[in-house]
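Notebook, student rotation project (T.W.).
Task set for the rotation: take a protein with a known small-molecule partner, predict the structure of the complex, and write up what can be learned from the model alone. Partner molecule chosen: magnesium ion. Sequence and SMILES entered below by T.W., checked by me.
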Amino acid sequence: MLEFIQLLKQGYQAALNRPGNEKNRADYAKRVEHLLLAEAFIRKGQWLGQAAQQPLQITLLGPTQAGKSTLANVLLNHNLAGISPLAGYTQHPQGFCHGITLADTGSGLQRYFGRFQQLPAQQLTPTRHDCYALTESPAASTLLPPCVLWDTPDFDSIDSSTYREGVLRAVALADVLVLVVSKEKYADQTVWDMMALVQDLHQPTLICLNKVAEGSEQLLIHSLQEKWQQARTDPFPAVITLAYQKSSGLPSWPATRQQLLKQLCKSVQHRKQARYEQALLQKYWPTWLQPVLEEHQALAEWQQAVEQAVNDGLLHYRRDYLNHPRHYETFQQALAELSVLLEIPGLAGFLTGARKAMTWPVRQVMKLTRKRHPLAQTSQEIVLLKQIAEHLLIQLADQLMDKTEHSRHSHWWKACNGLLRQQRPLLLQGFSQAAKHYHLDFQQDVEKTAQSLYLKLQQQPFVLNSLRATRVTADAAAIAITLHTGGIGLHDLLVAPAMLAITTLLTESAIGGYLHKLEQELKQQQFNTVKQRLFSDALAQPLMALPEQLPDLAHFSITPAQLQSAQSQLSEKRHGLRLL
Ligand SMILES: Nc1nc2c(ncn2[C@@H]2O[C@H](COP(=O)(O)OP(=O)(O)OP(=O)(O)O)[C@@H](O)[C@H]2O)c(=O)[nH]1
Ligand SMILES: [Mg+2]
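Predicted structure of the complex:
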Protein backbone atom coordinates (compact mmCIF):
# COMPACT_ATOMS: atom_id res chain seq x y z
CA MET A 1 0.00 0.00 0.00
CA LEU A 2 2.83 2.37 0.87
CA GLU A 3 4.33 1.89 -2.61
CA PHE A 4 0.96 2.50 -4.19
CA ILE A 5 0.47 5.73 -2.25
CA GLN A 6 3.96 6.84 -3.31
CA LEU A 7 3.18 6.00 -6.92
CA LEU A 8 -0.02 8.03 -6.76
CA LYS A 9 1.84 10.94 -5.18
CA GLN A 10 4.48 10.85 -7.92
CA GLY A 11 1.71 10.84 -10.50
CA TYR A 12 0.17 13.95 -8.99
CA GLN A 13 3.54 15.66 -8.65
CA ALA A 14 4.22 14.96 -12.33
CA ALA A 15 0.79 16.31 -13.21
CA LEU A 16 1.53 19.46 -11.19
CA ASN A 17 4.71 19.98 -13.20
CA ARG A 18 2.93 19.54 -16.50
CA PRO A 19 2.45 22.74 -18.42
CA GLY A 20 -1.16 23.60 -19.24
CA ASN A 21 -2.61 21.92 -16.16
CA GLU A 22 -3.60 25.17 -14.42
CA LYS A 23 -7.23 24.28 -13.83
CA ASN A 24 -6.31 21.24 -11.73
CA ARG A 25 -3.37 22.77 -9.93
CA ALA A 26 -5.05 23.71 -6.64
CA ASP A 27 -6.94 20.42 -6.37
CA TYR A 28 -3.89 18.37 -7.19
CA ALA A 29 -1.70 20.24 -4.69
CA LYS A 30 -4.24 19.45 -1.99
CA ARG A 31 -4.25 15.79 -2.96
CA VAL A 32 -0.46 15.68 -2.78
CA GLU A 33 -0.74 17.02 0.76
CA HIS A 34 -3.30 14.35 1.70
CA LEU A 35 -1.10 11.69 0.13
CA LEU A 36 1.95 12.93 2.03
CA LEU A 37 0.03 12.76 5.26
CA ALA A 38 -1.34 9.30 4.49
CA GLU A 39 2.12 8.07 3.52
CA ALA A 40 3.61 9.36 6.78
CA PHE A 41 0.75 7.89 8.81
CA ILE A 42 1.27 4.47 7.21
CA ARG A 43 4.98 4.75 7.98
CA LYS A 44 4.13 5.52 11.57
CA GLY A 45 1.99 2.37 11.63
CA GLN A 46 4.89 0.35 10.26
CA TRP A 47 7.18 1.64 12.96
CA LEU A 48 4.62 0.78 15.63
CA GLY A 49 4.36 -2.68 14.15
CA GLN A 50 8.11 -3.21 14.22
CA ALA A 51 9.28 -1.72 17.50
CA ALA A 52 8.17 -3.43 20.69
CA GLN A 53 8.46 -0.17 22.59
CA GLN A 54 8.71 3.09 20.82
CA PRO A 55 9.54 6.37 22.59
CA LEU A 56 6.59 8.70 22.92
CA GLN A 57 6.44 11.44 20.31
CA ILE A 58 4.96 14.88 21.07
CA THR A 59 4.68 17.39 18.23
CA LEU A 60 4.19 21.13 18.48
CA LEU A 61 2.19 22.48 15.58
CA GLY A 62 1.13 26.02 14.75
CA PRO A 63 1.34 29.05 12.47
CA THR A 64 4.47 31.14 12.17
CA GLN A 65 5.48 33.28 15.15
CA ALA A 66 2.93 31.60 17.38
CA GLY A 67 5.76 30.70 19.73
CA LYS A 68 6.29 27.00 18.95
CA SER A 69 10.04 27.12 19.38
CA THR A 70 9.67 29.24 22.50
CA LEU A 71 7.21 26.72 23.93
CA ALA A 72 9.59 23.88 23.07
CA ASN A 73 12.21 25.54 25.26
CA VAL A 74 9.70 26.13 28.07
CA LEU A 75 8.58 22.50 27.97
CA LEU A 76 12.15 21.22 27.83
CA ASN A 77 13.28 23.58 30.56
CA HIS A 78 16.25 24.37 28.37
CA ASN A 79 17.00 26.64 25.43
CA LEU A 80 17.48 24.26 22.53
CA ALA A 81 15.13 25.50 19.82
CA GLY A 82 16.07 28.59 17.81
CA ILE A 83 13.78 31.56 18.33
CA SER A 84 13.40 34.62 16.15
CA PRO A 85 10.96 37.44 15.41
CA LEU A 86 11.38 36.58 11.71
CA ALA A 87 8.45 34.76 10.19
CA GLY A 88 9.23 31.23 8.98
CA TYR A 89 12.31 30.92 11.16
CA THR A 90 12.11 27.21 11.95
CA GLN A 91 12.23 25.32 8.66
CA HIS A 92 12.96 21.71 9.69
CA PRO A 93 11.42 19.24 12.08
CA GLN A 94 13.64 19.20 15.15
CA GLY A 95 13.28 16.50 17.75
CA PHE A 96 14.53 16.91 21.30
CA CYS A 97 14.98 13.79 23.39
CA HIS A 98 13.76 14.40 26.91
CA GLY A 99 14.54 11.76 29.51
CA ILE A 100 15.70 9.35 26.83
CA THR A 101 18.89 8.99 24.82
CA LEU A 102 19.34 9.21 21.06
CA ALA A 103 19.99 5.47 21.07
CA ASP A 104 16.52 4.87 22.53
CA THR A 105 14.98 6.05 19.27
CA GLY A 106 16.84 3.24 17.45
CA SER A 107 16.82 3.06 13.68
CA GLY A 108 13.04 3.18 13.57
CA LEU A 109 12.91 6.95 13.45
CA GLN A 110 15.22 7.20 10.46
CA ARG A 111 13.17 4.51 8.73
CA TYR A 112 10.05 6.50 9.48
CA PHE A 113 11.53 9.63 7.94
CA GLY A 114 12.55 7.68 4.82
CA ARG A 115 14.17 9.99 2.31
CA PHE A 116 14.54 12.70 4.96
CA GLN A 117 18.05 12.65 6.31
CA GLN A 118 18.92 13.06 9.97
CA LEU A 119 21.49 15.84 10.40
CA PRO A 120 23.07 17.55 13.41
CA ALA A 121 20.97 20.63 14.24
CA GLN A 122 23.77 23.04 13.30
CA GLN A 123 23.90 21.57 9.78
CA LEU A 124 20.28 22.32 8.96
CA THR A 125 20.15 25.00 6.27
CA PRO A 126 17.30 26.84 4.57
CA THR A 127 18.57 25.52 1.22
CA ARG A 128 17.66 21.96 2.00
CA HIS A 129 14.38 20.76 3.46
CA ASP A 130 14.50 16.98 3.18
CA CYS A 131 16.16 16.60 6.56
CA TYR A 132 15.48 16.73 10.28
CA ALA A 133 17.52 16.97 13.47
CA LEU A 134 17.46 14.98 16.66
CA THR A 135 19.15 16.33 19.79
CA GLU A 136 19.37 15.07 23.34
CA SER A 137 18.17 17.60 25.89
CA PRO A 138 20.53 17.79 28.88
CA ALA A 139 17.83 19.15 31.20
CA ALA A 140 15.02 17.50 33.08
CA SER A 141 11.53 18.96 32.91
CA THR A 142 8.59 18.37 35.19
CA LEU A 143 6.20 19.21 32.38
CA LEU A 144 7.18 16.34 30.09
CA PRO A 145 7.30 12.57 30.34
CA PRO A 146 10.29 10.79 28.70
CA CYS A 147 9.68 11.53 25.04
CA VAL A 148 10.87 13.12 21.80
CA LEU A 149 9.46 16.64 21.62
CA TRP A 150 9.20 17.94 18.06
CA ASP A 151 9.45 21.62 17.17
CA THR A 152 8.10 22.06 13.64
CA PRO A 153 8.12 24.68 10.90
CA ASP A 154 5.03 26.78 10.32
CA PHE A 155 2.44 26.05 7.65
CA ASP A 156 1.25 29.56 6.79
CA SER A 157 4.20 31.83 5.96
CA ILE A 158 4.96 32.77 2.35
CA ASP A 159 7.64 30.13 1.87
CA SER A 160 6.00 27.44 3.95
CA SER A 161 5.10 25.31 0.93
CA THR A 162 8.80 24.53 0.48
CA TYR A 163 9.00 22.80 3.86
CA ARG A 164 5.43 21.62 4.29
CA GLU A 165 6.33 17.96 3.86
CA GLY A 166 8.52 18.20 6.97
CA VAL A 167 5.56 19.55 8.96
CA LEU A 168 3.31 16.73 7.78
CA ARG A 169 5.95 14.13 8.64
CA ALA A 170 6.37 15.48 12.16
CA VAL A 171 2.59 15.69 12.61
CA ALA A 172 1.84 12.14 11.45
CA LEU A 173 4.60 10.90 13.76
CA ALA A 174 2.99 12.40 16.84
CA ASP A 175 1.36 10.38 19.59
CA VAL A 176 0.26 13.66 21.14
CA LEU A 177 -0.26 16.91 19.32
CA VAL A 178 0.11 20.38 20.82
CA LEU A 179 -1.48 23.15 18.80
CA VAL A 180 0.27 26.44 19.50
CA VAL A 181 -1.65 29.59 18.56
CA SER A 182 -1.27 33.23 19.48
CA LYS A 183 -4.08 35.73 19.84
CA GLU A 184 -3.16 37.17 16.42
CA LYS A 185 -3.23 33.87 14.64
CA TYR A 186 -5.75 31.58 16.28
CA ALA A 187 -8.60 32.52 13.92
CA ASP A 188 -6.63 32.08 10.70
CA GLN A 189 -8.21 29.71 8.18
CA THR A 190 -4.88 27.96 7.61
CA VAL A 191 -4.87 26.89 11.27
CA TRP A 192 -8.29 25.32 11.05
CA ASP A 193 -7.70 23.74 7.67
CA MET A 194 -4.70 22.05 9.24
CA MET A 195 -6.68 20.95 12.29
CA ALA A 196 -9.41 19.53 10.06
CA LEU A 197 -6.78 17.68 8.04
CA VAL A 198 -5.15 16.03 11.05
CA GLN A 199 -8.38 14.94 12.69
CA ASP A 200 -8.14 11.66 10.79
CA LEU A 201 -4.99 10.82 12.76
CA HIS A 202 -7.02 10.71 15.99
CA GLN A 203 -4.26 12.14 18.20
CA PRO A 204 -4.87 13.33 21.76
CA THR A 205 -4.48 17.12 21.44
CA LEU A 206 -3.76 20.07 23.66
CA ILE A 207 -4.11 23.73 22.68
CA CYS A 208 -1.62 26.34 23.92
CA LEU A 209 -2.80 29.89 23.61
CA ASN A 210 0.15 32.23 23.56
CA LYS A 211 0.76 35.97 23.69
CA VAL A 212 -2.57 36.61 25.38
CA ALA A 213 -3.26 39.91 27.13
CA GLU A 214 -4.50 39.47 30.68
CA GLY A 215 -8.25 39.52 30.98
CA SER A 216 -9.01 38.56 27.39
CA GLU A 217 -8.51 34.87 28.06
CA GLN A 218 -12.09 33.69 28.42
CA LEU A 219 -13.26 35.49 25.31
CA LEU A 220 -10.47 33.95 23.27
CA ILE A 221 -11.09 30.45 24.57
CA HIS A 222 -14.75 30.75 23.70
CA SER A 223 -13.96 31.91 20.21
CA LEU A 224 -11.36 29.14 19.90
CA GLN A 225 -13.97 26.58 20.82
CA GLU A 226 -16.27 27.83 18.08
CA LYS A 227 -13.49 27.55 15.56
CA TRP A 228 -12.70 24.02 16.73
CA GLN A 229 -16.31 22.96 16.40
CA GLN A 230 -16.51 24.30 12.90
CA ALA A 231 -13.41 22.39 11.83
CA ARG A 232 -13.67 19.20 13.85
CA THR A 233 -16.20 16.68 15.03
CA ASP A 234 -14.31 15.48 18.14
CA PRO A 235 -14.62 17.16 21.59
CA PHE A 236 -12.90 20.48 22.22
CA PRO A 237 -9.60 19.73 23.98
CA ALA A 238 -8.00 21.32 27.03
CA VAL A 239 -6.55 24.82 26.51
CA ILE A 240 -3.55 26.23 28.33
CA THR A 241 -2.96 29.95 28.29
CA LEU A 242 0.64 30.92 28.62
CA ALA A 243 1.48 34.02 30.58
CA TYR A 244 4.39 36.07 29.30
CA GLN A 245 7.18 36.69 31.82
CA LYS A 246 8.84 40.00 31.20
CA SER A 247 11.80 39.04 33.37
CA SER A 248 12.74 35.87 31.51
CA GLY A 249 11.30 36.90 28.13
CA LEU A 250 9.56 33.51 28.13
CA PRO A 251 5.96 32.52 28.59
CA SER A 252 5.31 30.39 31.64
CA TRP A 253 3.28 27.25 31.97
CA PRO A 254 0.55 27.64 34.62
CA ALA A 255 1.64 26.14 37.94
CA THR A 256 -1.74 24.47 38.48
CA ARG A 257 -1.54 22.45 35.28
CA GLN A 258 1.97 21.06 35.42
CA GLN A 259 0.75 17.47 35.00
CA LEU A 260 -1.59 18.14 32.09
CA LEU A 261 0.64 17.06 29.24
CA LYS A 262 1.87 14.00 31.12
CA GLN A 263 -1.70 12.93 31.74
CA LEU A 264 -2.64 13.43 28.14
CA CYS A 265 0.28 11.22 27.17
CA LYS A 266 -1.14 8.44 29.31
CA SER A 267 -4.22 8.35 27.10
CA VAL A 268 -2.13 7.37 24.09
CA GLN A 269 -3.01 4.00 22.62
CA HIS A 270 -2.08 2.53 19.27
CA ARG A 271 -4.60 -0.25 19.18
CA LYS A 272 -6.65 1.37 16.46
CA GLN A 273 -3.80 2.62 14.26
CA ALA A 274 -4.53 0.16 11.42
CA ARG A 275 -8.20 1.01 11.46
CA TYR A 276 -7.43 4.73 11.37
CA GLU A 277 -5.05 4.22 8.47
CA GLN A 278 -7.70 2.33 6.58
CA ALA A 279 -10.36 4.95 7.30
CA LEU A 280 -8.01 7.71 6.16
CA LEU A 281 -7.30 5.93 2.87
CA GLN A 282 -10.94 5.13 2.29
CA LYS A 283 -11.93 8.74 2.86
CA TYR A 284 -9.68 10.10 0.13
CA TRP A 285 -9.61 7.05 -2.14
CA PRO A 286 -12.31 8.09 -4.66
CA THR A 287 -10.85 11.59 -5.05
CA TRP A 288 -7.28 10.37 -5.34
CA LEU A 289 -8.13 7.79 -7.95
CA GLN A 290 -10.40 9.91 -10.10
CA PRO A 291 -7.72 10.91 -12.67
CA VAL A 292 -6.23 7.41 -12.58
CA LEU A 293 -9.60 5.92 -13.44
CA GLU A 294 -10.06 8.49 -16.18
CA GLU A 295 -6.71 7.42 -17.54
CA HIS A 296 -7.71 3.77 -17.43
CA GLN A 297 -10.92 4.70 -19.19
CA ALA A 298 -8.88 6.46 -21.86
CA LEU A 299 -6.65 3.39 -22.15
CA ALA A 300 -9.69 1.14 -22.57
CA GLU A 301 -11.05 3.50 -25.24
CA TRP A 302 -7.74 3.39 -27.04
CA GLN A 303 -7.66 -0.39 -26.94
CA GLN A 304 -11.19 -0.51 -28.26
CA ALA A 305 -10.25 1.83 -31.08
CA VAL A 306 -7.29 -0.37 -31.98
CA GLU A 307 -9.44 -3.48 -31.89
CA GLN A 308 -12.04 -1.85 -34.10
CA ALA A 309 -9.43 -0.64 -36.56
CA VAL A 310 -7.86 -4.10 -36.72
CA ASN A 311 -11.23 -5.75 -37.31
CA ASP A 312 -11.96 -3.24 -40.07
CA GLY A 313 -8.58 -4.04 -41.57
CA LEU A 314 -9.29 -7.76 -41.52
CA LEU A 315 -12.66 -7.25 -43.18
CA HIS A 316 -10.95 -5.18 -45.79
CA TYR A 317 -8.40 -7.97 -46.36
CA ARG A 318 -11.07 -10.61 -46.65
CA ARG A 319 -13.17 -8.56 -49.03
CA ASP A 320 -10.39 -7.22 -51.23
CA TYR A 321 -8.12 -10.19 -51.27
CA LEU A 322 -9.38 -13.55 -50.03
CA ASN A 323 -12.85 -13.19 -51.50
CA HIS A 324 -11.94 -11.05 -54.47
CA PRO A 325 -12.17 -13.01 -57.72
CA ARG A 326 -9.58 -10.90 -59.53
CA HIS A 327 -7.13 -10.47 -56.65
CA TYR A 328 -6.91 -13.82 -54.90
CA GLU A 329 -3.77 -15.44 -56.23
CA THR A 330 -2.71 -17.91 -53.51
CA PHE A 331 -4.81 -20.82 -54.69
CA GLN A 332 -3.74 -20.20 -58.27
CA GLN A 333 -0.23 -20.54 -57.05
CA ALA A 334 -1.09 -23.90 -55.47
CA LEU A 335 -2.40 -25.01 -58.85
CA ALA A 336 0.79 -23.82 -60.52
CA GLU A 337 2.80 -25.80 -57.96
CA LEU A 338 0.60 -28.78 -58.68
CA SER A 339 1.41 -28.63 -62.36
CA VAL A 340 5.08 -28.66 -61.50
CA LEU A 341 4.60 -31.68 -59.27
CA LEU A 342 3.00 -33.49 -62.14
CA GLU A 343 6.39 -33.22 -63.89
CA ILE A 344 5.10 -33.46 -67.36
CA PRO A 345 7.55 -34.16 -70.18
CA GLY A 346 6.62 -30.98 -72.09
CA LEU A 347 8.37 -28.97 -69.44
CA ALA A 348 11.76 -30.31 -70.31
CA GLY A 349 12.20 -28.04 -73.34
CA PHE A 350 11.56 -24.97 -71.25
CA LEU A 351 14.08 -26.02 -68.69
CA THR A 352 16.95 -26.87 -71.01
CA GLY A 353 19.17 -24.07 -69.74
CA ALA A 354 18.48 -24.72 -66.13
CA ARG A 355 19.01 -28.47 -66.40
CA LYS A 356 22.62 -28.02 -67.40
CA ALA A 357 23.44 -26.56 -64.03
CA MET A 358 20.97 -28.34 -61.84
CA THR A 359 19.52 -31.74 -61.52
CA TRP A 360 15.95 -32.68 -62.03
CA PRO A 361 13.37 -32.64 -60.49
CA VAL A 362 11.95 -29.25 -60.97
CA ARG A 363 11.34 -28.87 -57.28
CA GLN A 364 15.10 -28.69 -56.82
CA VAL A 365 15.25 -25.76 -59.21
CA MET A 366 12.44 -24.09 -57.43
CA LYS A 367 14.07 -24.43 -54.05
CA LEU A 368 17.13 -22.59 -55.30
CA THR A 369 15.36 -19.90 -57.25
CA ARG A 370 12.89 -19.24 -54.48
CA LYS A 371 15.60 -17.81 -52.28
CA ARG A 372 16.67 -15.36 -54.89
CA HIS A 373 13.23 -14.20 -55.87
CA PRO A 374 10.96 -13.87 -52.90
CA LEU A 375 7.49 -14.14 -54.32
CA ALA A 376 6.34 -11.56 -51.82
CA GLN A 377 7.84 -8.83 -53.98
CA THR A 378 5.32 -9.43 -56.71
CA SER A 379 2.38 -10.30 -54.53
CA GLN A 380 -0.76 -8.22 -54.75
CA GLU A 381 -1.62 -9.56 -51.33
CA ILE A 382 1.41 -7.88 -49.76
CA VAL A 383 0.68 -4.61 -51.55
CA LEU A 384 -2.87 -4.68 -50.26
CA LEU A 385 -1.83 -5.61 -46.71
CA LYS A 386 0.56 -2.66 -46.60
CA GLN A 387 -2.18 -0.34 -47.83
CA ILE A 388 -4.52 -1.64 -45.15
CA ALA A 389 -1.89 -1.09 -42.43
CA GLU A 390 -1.29 2.47 -43.62
CA HIS A 391 -4.98 3.20 -43.72
CA LEU A 392 -5.43 1.71 -40.26
CA LEU A 393 -2.80 4.01 -38.75
CA ILE A 394 -4.31 7.06 -40.43
CA GLN A 395 -7.71 6.10 -39.08
CA LEU A 396 -6.30 5.78 -35.56
CA ALA A 397 -4.42 9.07 -35.80
CA ASP A 398 -7.71 10.78 -36.76
CA GLN A 399 -9.39 9.33 -33.73
CA LEU A 400 -6.56 10.46 -31.48
CA MET A 401 -6.88 14.01 -32.85
CA ASP A 402 -10.58 13.91 -32.21
CA LYS A 403 -10.14 12.70 -28.62
CA THR A 404 -7.46 15.34 -28.01
CA GLU A 405 -9.98 18.01 -28.92
CA HIS A 406 -13.03 16.63 -27.21
CA SER A 407 -12.01 14.40 -24.31
CA ARG A 408 -11.60 15.36 -20.64
CA HIS A 409 -8.26 13.64 -20.60
CA SER A 410 -6.96 15.56 -23.58
CA HIS A 411 -3.29 15.72 -22.49
CA TRP A 412 -3.19 11.90 -22.45
CA TRP A 413 -4.63 11.66 -25.94
CA LYS A 414 -2.34 14.35 -27.19
CA ALA A 415 0.69 12.53 -25.85
CA CYS A 416 -0.55 9.29 -27.44
CA ASN A 417 -1.00 11.05 -30.73
CA GLY A 418 2.57 12.33 -30.56
CA LEU A 419 3.83 8.83 -29.85
CA LEU A 420 1.88 7.32 -32.72
CA ARG A 421 3.17 9.94 -35.13
CA GLN A 422 6.71 9.29 -33.98
CA GLN A 423 6.42 5.50 -34.16
CA ARG A 424 4.42 5.25 -37.37
CA PRO A 425 7.38 4.55 -39.69
CA LEU A 426 8.68 1.90 -37.32
CA LEU A 427 5.28 0.24 -37.03
CA LEU A 428 4.86 0.16 -40.80
CA GLN A 429 8.35 -1.19 -41.26
CA GLY A 430 7.70 -3.92 -38.69
CA PHE A 431 4.44 -4.75 -40.40
CA SER A 432 6.08 -4.92 -43.78
CA GLN A 433 8.77 -7.27 -42.48
CA ALA A 434 6.18 -9.46 -40.79
CA ALA A 435 4.18 -9.55 -44.04
CA LYS A 436 7.21 -10.70 -46.00
CA HIS A 437 8.01 -13.43 -43.49
CA TYR A 438 4.43 -14.56 -43.41
CA HIS A 439 4.34 -14.80 -47.18
CA LEU A 440 7.52 -16.79 -47.32
CA ASP A 441 6.41 -19.17 -44.58
CA PHE A 442 3.00 -19.55 -46.11
CA GLN A 443 4.56 -21.06 -49.20
CA GLN A 444 4.66 -24.29 -47.21
CA ASP A 445 0.89 -24.27 -46.89
CA VAL A 446 0.62 -23.57 -50.60
CA GLU A 447 2.85 -26.54 -51.34
CA LYS A 448 0.90 -28.73 -48.95
CA THR A 449 -2.29 -27.86 -50.81
CA ALA A 450 -0.57 -28.67 -54.11
CA GLN A 451 0.56 -31.99 -52.71
CA SER A 452 -2.92 -32.88 -51.45
CA LEU A 453 -4.26 -32.18 -54.93
CA TYR A 454 -1.47 -34.17 -56.50
CA LEU A 455 -2.27 -37.21 -54.33
CA LYS A 456 -5.95 -36.86 -55.17
CA LEU A 457 -5.14 -36.72 -58.87
CA GLN A 458 -3.06 -39.86 -58.63
CA GLN A 459 -6.25 -41.62 -57.63
CA GLN A 460 -8.08 -40.11 -60.60
CA PRO A 461 -6.23 -41.32 -63.71
CA PHE A 462 -9.01 -40.16 -65.97
CA VAL A 463 -8.75 -36.56 -64.86
CA LEU A 464 -4.98 -36.77 -64.89
CA ASN A 465 -4.92 -38.08 -68.43
CA SER A 466 -7.30 -35.46 -69.72
CA LEU A 467 -5.15 -32.76 -68.12
CA ARG A 468 -2.09 -34.13 -69.81
CA ALA A 469 -3.86 -34.60 -73.09
CA THR A 470 -4.72 -30.94 -73.31
CA ARG A 471 -1.17 -30.00 -72.38
CA VAL A 472 -2.50 -27.36 -70.04
CA THR A 473 -0.47 -28.63 -67.08
CA ALA A 474 2.66 -28.36 -69.19
CA ASP A 475 1.91 -24.71 -69.88
CA ALA A 476 0.98 -24.10 -66.26
CA ALA A 477 4.20 -25.72 -65.05
CA ALA A 478 6.17 -23.51 -67.38
CA ILE A 479 4.44 -20.53 -65.88
CA ALA A 480 5.20 -21.76 -62.39
CA ILE A 481 8.89 -22.04 -63.18
CA THR A 482 8.88 -18.61 -64.77
CA LEU A 483 7.26 -17.35 -61.64
CA HIS A 484 9.98 -18.79 -59.47
CA THR A 485 12.75 -17.52 -61.64
CA GLY A 486 11.25 -14.06 -61.44
CA GLY A 487 10.12 -13.94 -65.06
CA ILE A 488 6.57 -13.08 -64.12
CA GLY A 489 4.87 -11.87 -60.96
CA LEU A 490 2.41 -13.70 -58.77
CA HIS A 491 -0.42 -11.50 -59.96
CA ASP A 492 0.25 -12.63 -63.56
CA LEU A 493 -0.97 -16.07 -62.57
CA LEU A 494 -4.50 -14.77 -62.42
CA VAL A 495 -4.61 -13.78 -66.07
CA ALA A 496 -2.37 -16.45 -67.61
CA PRO A 497 -4.53 -18.48 -70.05
CA ALA A 498 -2.92 -21.74 -68.97
CA MET A 499 -3.84 -21.06 -65.36
CA LEU A 500 -7.37 -20.18 -66.32
CA ALA A 501 -7.57 -23.37 -68.33
CA ILE A 502 -6.24 -25.62 -65.57
CA THR A 503 -8.59 -24.03 -63.07
CA THR A 504 -11.59 -24.57 -65.33
CA LEU A 505 -10.60 -28.12 -66.11
CA LEU A 506 -10.11 -29.10 -62.50
CA THR A 507 -13.18 -27.27 -61.28
CA GLU A 508 -15.33 -29.08 -63.79
CA SER A 509 -13.65 -32.44 -63.21
CA ALA A 510 -14.48 -35.20 -60.74
CA ILE A 511 -12.26 -33.55 -58.12
CA GLY A 512 -14.02 -30.17 -58.44
CA GLY A 513 -15.64 -30.53 -55.01
CA TYR A 514 -12.37 -31.50 -53.42
CA LEU A 515 -10.67 -28.58 -55.12
CA HIS A 516 -13.21 -26.20 -53.70
CA LYS A 517 -12.83 -27.68 -50.21
CA LEU A 518 -9.04 -27.32 -50.36
CA GLU A 519 -9.36 -23.74 -51.52
CA GLN A 520 -11.63 -22.90 -48.60
CA GLU A 521 -9.26 -24.59 -46.16
CA LEU A 522 -6.28 -22.75 -47.56
CA LYS A 523 -8.14 -19.44 -47.32
CA GLN A 524 -9.17 -20.10 -43.75
CA GLN A 525 -5.63 -21.02 -42.81
CA GLN A 526 -4.39 -17.91 -44.59
CA PHE A 527 -6.92 -15.70 -42.83
CA ASN A 528 -5.97 -17.13 -39.43
CA THR A 529 -2.27 -16.69 -40.08
CA VAL A 530 -2.63 -13.12 -41.35
CA LYS A 531 -4.91 -12.27 -38.45
CA GLN A 532 -2.48 -13.58 -35.86
CA ARG A 533 0.91 -12.72 -37.29
CA LEU A 534 0.15 -9.46 -39.00
CA PHE A 535 -2.92 -7.84 -37.51
CA SER A 536 -2.47 -9.07 -33.97
CA ASP A 537 1.29 -9.50 -33.42
CA ALA A 538 2.60 -6.79 -35.74
CA LEU A 539 -0.15 -4.18 -35.32
CA ALA A 540 -2.62 -4.60 -32.47
CA GLN A 541 -0.07 -5.55 -29.85
CA PRO A 542 2.42 -2.73 -30.36
CA LEU A 543 -0.43 -0.25 -30.79
CA MET A 544 -2.16 -1.29 -27.61
CA ALA A 545 1.12 -1.12 -25.73
CA LEU A 546 1.83 2.38 -27.06
CA PRO A 547 0.53 4.19 -23.92
CA GLU A 548 3.10 2.28 -21.83
CA GLN A 549 5.71 4.44 -23.47
CA LEU A 550 4.06 7.74 -22.60
CA PRO A 551 6.46 10.14 -20.90
CA ASP A 552 6.09 10.23 -17.10
CA LEU A 553 4.60 13.70 -17.18
CA ALA A 554 1.70 12.54 -19.29
CA HIS A 555 0.28 9.86 -17.06
CA PHE A 556 0.08 8.27 -13.63
CA SER A 557 2.01 5.09 -14.50
CA ILE A 558 -0.47 3.04 -12.50
CA THR A 559 -1.71 -0.04 -14.29
CA PRO A 560 -5.25 -1.37 -13.85
CA ALA A 561 -3.68 -4.45 -12.20
CA GLN A 562 -1.80 -2.31 -9.65
CA LEU A 563 -4.97 -0.38 -8.90
CA GLN A 564 -6.95 -3.58 -8.49
CA SER A 565 -4.40 -5.02 -6.11
CA ALA A 566 -4.39 -1.82 -4.01
CA GLN A 567 -8.20 -1.72 -3.96
CA SER A 568 -8.42 -5.27 -2.71
CA GLN A 569 -5.80 -4.60 -0.03
CA LEU A 570 -7.86 -1.67 1.11
CA SER A 571 -11.13 -3.54 1.31
CA GLU A 572 -9.71 -6.77 2.75
CA LYS A 573 -8.10 -5.26 5.79
CA ARG A 574 -10.73 -4.71 8.36
CA HIS A 575 -10.82 -4.19 12.07
CA GLY A 576 -7.55 -3.57 13.67
CA LEU A 577 -5.23 -6.20 12.28
CA ARG A 578 -1.98 -4.56 11.27
CA LEU A 579 -1.80 -5.61 7.68
CA LEU A 580 -1.41 -2.45 5.63
N1 LIG B 1 5.31 38.95 23.81
C1 LIG B 1 5.54 37.64 23.66
N2 LIG B 1 6.41 37.27 22.72
C2 LIG B 1 6.64 35.95 22.57
C3 LIG B 1 6.00 34.97 23.36
N3 LIG B 1 6.41 33.77 22.94
C4 LIG B 1 7.25 33.96 21.91
N4 LIG B 1 7.40 35.28 21.69
C5 LIG B 1 8.22 35.90 20.64
O1 LIG B 1 7.64 35.66 19.38
C6 LIG B 1 8.63 35.48 18.37
C7 LIG B 1 8.44 34.14 17.69
O2 LIG B 1 8.63 33.09 18.57
P1 LIG B 1 9.07 31.66 18.06
O3 LIG B 1 9.04 30.76 19.23
O4 LIG B 1 10.30 31.73 17.26
O5 LIG B 1 7.84 31.36 17.13
P2 LIG B 1 7.65 30.09 16.18
O6 LIG B 1 6.24 29.69 16.29
O7 LIG B 1 8.66 29.07 16.47
O8 LIG B 1 7.89 30.75 14.77
P3 LIG B 1 8.41 30.07 13.40
O9 LIG B 1 9.65 29.33 13.73
O10 LIG B 1 8.64 31.22 12.51
O11 LIG B 1 7.32 29.21 12.96
C8 LIG B 1 9.95 35.55 19.10
O12 LIG B 1 10.49 36.81 18.92
C9 LIG B 1 9.60 35.29 20.55
O13 LIG B 1 10.50 35.93 21.44
C10 LIG B 1 5.09 35.43 24.38
O14 LIG B 1 4.49 34.66 25.11
N5 LIG B 1 4.89 36.77 24.49
MG1 LIG C 1 10.17 28.25 15.38
